[in-house]
Amino acid sequence: MTLFFLLLGPQSAVGAHVRAPGRISRFLHHESLRHELNRITTPADFFDRLVGAEVL
Fold first, then answer.
1. Neighbours of 19 (CB within 10 A)
2. For position 54, what pLDDT does the model report?
3. Rounded distance, CA 46 to CA 6, Å?
4. Which of 34, 55, 52, 54 lies closest to 5 in space, CA to CA?
5. Cα 27–6–31 angle (5° rounding)?
6. What's the pLDDT score for residue 17?
7. Less Cβ around it within 10 Å: N or C end of the chain?
8. Distance between CA 14 and CA 10 in Å, rounded?
9. Over 1-56, what HEC string results?
10. Mean pLDDT of successive 10-residue segments in the chain (56 residues)?
11. Residue-range domain boundaries for the chain
């Protein structure tokens, strides 16, 4: 499976579009997290796990 990320946000969130890909990239360096994200079946669970990954 290929992971695809679409980043959307308000125009007032200047700079967030630059920081977000870097954060996602750092999370995805963890092989166990990549495998876990690939096994998730719902968008809500995927989002919750990705947000929870911020503690890595």
1. 10
2. 67
3. 13
4. 34
5. 25
6. 77
7. N
8. 8
9. CCCCCCCCCCCCCCCHHHHHHHHHHHHHCCHHHHHHHHHCCCHHHHHHHHHHHHHC
10. 81 81 86 91 90 70
11. 17-55
Place of tokens 């308000």: 10
CA pair distance 40, 23, nearest whole angstrom: 20
Cα–Cα distance measured from residue 54 to residue 13, given in angstroms and rounded to the nearest whole number: 19
Count of beta carbons in the 10 Å neighbourhood of residue 50 = 19
The whole-number pLDDT of residue 56 equals: 52
- The Cα–Cα gap between 41 and 25 comes to 21
Whole-model pTM: value is 0.64
